[in-house]
Amino acid sequence: MTALIATETYLYAAVGTEVKVWSQPGKQLVTEEMSISISLMPEIVRGILPVSHGCCVLTPQKLYWLNERSWEPQCLLDMGLRQGPDALKAAVDSHGNWLTVAVPGELRFYSLGANSTAGAQKKALKLIATVPLPEHYLPELMFLDRRHVLAVWPDNEPKNPQTIFRVYTRRGTPVGSVRLSASIGQMLLTPEPYTLLGIPQGGKAAVLLMKLSPLKVARIPLETLPVSACVANWGWVLADVGGQIEVLNSQGIQVGSFSSPTSPRAIAPWGNRGLVIAVNTEEESHLHFLDVGVEESNSRSIIKG
Q1: Residues 124-144: tens digit of each pLDDT
Q2: Rounded distance between C-alpha atoms, residue 98 and residue 139, angstroms
Q3: Which one-letter DSSP state was computed for residue 293?
Q4: 3-state secondary structure of 83
Q5: What pTM value is reported for the model?
Q6: Could you tell me the CA-to-CA distances from 45 to 16, 122, 130, 227 in Å, in that order?
Q7: In sequence order, which residues have a C-beta less than 8 Å from that of residue 77 and are 6 or more positions away?
Q8: How far apart are CA 35 and CA 297, in angstroms?
Q9: Lower CB count within 10 Å: N or C terminus of the chain?
Q10: Residue 76 and residue 285: Cα distance in Å, rounded?
Q11: Beta strands 274-280; 18-23: pairing state
């Protein structure tokens, strides 16, 4: 499994060349509804970018749009084999109207409108601006809100670990940049405006709460280093390699902990009070559905291979 992403409406999982979609549950956390499977053969799914009414899907060279009405893949961008594997990174705003793409040497800013001939089910891509990038590797991208995009370059150089943050408008205008003296791996956007939760690469076990404007960093020490994390409506959820899960509130104070399956690959919210944990083994991948209140779990195999 290469991605596990949740919204208020859907849970998305990337398994090989397939995207699997579940509707988020109501009061019953464990649902017996079958998932929808969308195949992108022969391309491996690298990432899922959820928006209202569907999602965008990243493969090594392409970007697809999937609309919830049909889940029929529409190719928006094709970088071609000449760019090599993992030729692009991308972010899309939550309403699916603006797209930012990082390719070798530049950032590209697009608007995403409805296709005039196909209506809302298909998207029409329009290039707004390009910005040169001097860095030799691609940044991670995320929309901070509907108007601003964050580009992040973590550098885990042992003698000088650092992370560079640059903010652009959705039309490509530079807003500002800051440099942090630590290399950040996974980053999550919190409900607090312009505030990120980051897991450092290396060093003592901790997470960093980072306000970007102006830059303020609070280090929250932990007993073990998290390997996966998510932000739920009831707290920040951190899982270590042994499956121990800690729940922090928005001030970084631990409000709960419990055990889950070991070696979690990814973690995501499920319903109002549940979690989904993805675990990969040599033979297959499993999703474990947990009720945080009663600490009962239900696991399900989603692929064999």
Answers
A1: 899 999 999 988 889 999 999
A2: 18
A3: T
A4: helix
A5: 0.89
A6: 6, 20, 26, 21
A7: 62, 63, 88, 101, 125
A8: 19
A9: C
A10: 29
A11: unpaired
